[in-house]
């Protein structure tokens, strides 16, 4: 990753394949070039929850980050009440790395923010075929 890319964000709009409806967005924020580190963020419209779109978009975006940007880690934050997202991230290979206690005010109460991350070698072990750069 080039130093000039530091602080840049790559955005993906998520669009339903059949209807063309906007589903949400997913992005990778390139934090520090020297550490080859990025932060993932994703938002899905509530009417599309529970259909696998977030998992598909996360897998695509993280794979893209490792394959084309040469990152060594991708991190994310998720609120403790978003159990479905936590499960999806864990299923994809993200591991809990920390917790910010009472980090977010949600619906009249405090929730912890859970920090999760995945390393490039962990990702490659899970998704070997999709991580390989084309030699053609």
Q: In which range does the helix fraction lie? A: 25-40%
Shape: globular
Q: What assembly state would you assign to the polypeptide chains in this entry?
A: single chain
Tell me the span between the first and last alpha carbons.
Answer: 22 Å
Number of helices: 4
Note down, in words, how this protein is organized:
The protein is of the alpha+beta class and 136 residues long. 28% of the residues lie in helices and 41% in strands. The protein contains four helices and six strands; from the N terminus they run βββαβαββαα. The protein has helices at 53-69, 83-92, 120-126, 128-131, and strands spanning 9-15, 22-32, 37-44, 73-79, 95-106, 109-119. The protein has a six-stranded mixed beta sheet. The longest helix has 17 residues, at 53-69. It is globular. The chain starts with 8 loop residues before the first strand and ends in a 5-residue tail after the last helix.
Essential attributes:
136 residues, alpha+beta, six-stranded mixed β-sheet, 4 helices, 6 strands
Sequence-ordered SSE layout with sheet pairings:
Blueprint: E1 9-15, E2 22-32, E3 37-44, H1 53-69, E4 73-79, H2 83-92, E5 95-106, E6 109-119, H3 120-126, H4 128-131
Parallel strand pairs: 3-4
Antiparallel strand pairs: 1-2, 2-3, 4-6, 5-6
Helix pairs in contact: 1-2
Summarize the structure.
The chain is an alpha+beta fold. Helix content is 28%, strand content 41%.
């Amino acid at each position: 990753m080039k130093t000039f890319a530091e602080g840049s964000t790559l955005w993906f709009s998520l669009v339903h394949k059949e209807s063309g409806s906007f589903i949400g967005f997913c992005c990778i924020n390139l934090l520090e070039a020297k550490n080859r580190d990025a932060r993932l963020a994703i938002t899905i419209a509530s009417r599309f929850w529970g259909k696998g779109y977030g998992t598909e978009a996360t897998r695509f975006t993280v794979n893209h980050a490792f394959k084309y940007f040469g990152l060594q880690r991708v991190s994310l934050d998720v609120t403790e009440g978003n159990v479905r997202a936590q499960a999806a991230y864990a299923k994809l290979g993200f591991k809990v790395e920390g917790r910010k206690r009472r980090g977010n005010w949600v619906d009249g109460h405090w929730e912890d923010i859970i920090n999760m991350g995945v390393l490039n070698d962990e990702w490659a072990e899970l998704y070997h075929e999709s991580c390989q750069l084309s030699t053609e």
